[in-house]
């Protein structure tokens, strides 16, 4: 038996409108489906990138904060591959997204940097 692919990444946000804007308007994900679940007072937003379903963005009333940044047990960060890392860094900073400096992966020689989503979830962009 083997796993074939990543199906999706689930993210819980504290401010649905802010996170929806961040993932769609800044990062460029496409909304595939948006559902309001009245019994949970919760939105579920399905997001894709280049036709591939990747993220479920959830809102819940008063979700707990992330335990620590970023070395809590569990998911450390999500990473996306990009072709022009410097252009992405400039673009994000022009949209008031604070970015760390570009670093070099000591094992691959590729460049990467980190930034945070509106709830401080660390996101890495890695040159492909």
UniProtKB/TrEMBL annotation:
Pfam families: Glyoxalase. The keyword Metal-binding applies. It comes from the Bacteria. Keywords: Metal-binding. The keyword Cytoplasm does not apply. SUPFAM superfamilies: Glyoxalase/Bleomycin resistance protein/Dihydroxybiphenyl dioxygenase. InterPro entries: Fosfomycin_Res_Enzymes, Glyas_Bleomycin-R_OHBP_Dase, Glyas_Fos-R_dOase_dom, VOC_core, YwkD-like_dom. NCBIfam families: PRK11478.1. This is VOC domain-containing protein YaeR. It comes from Tenacibaculum platacis. The gene is yaeR.
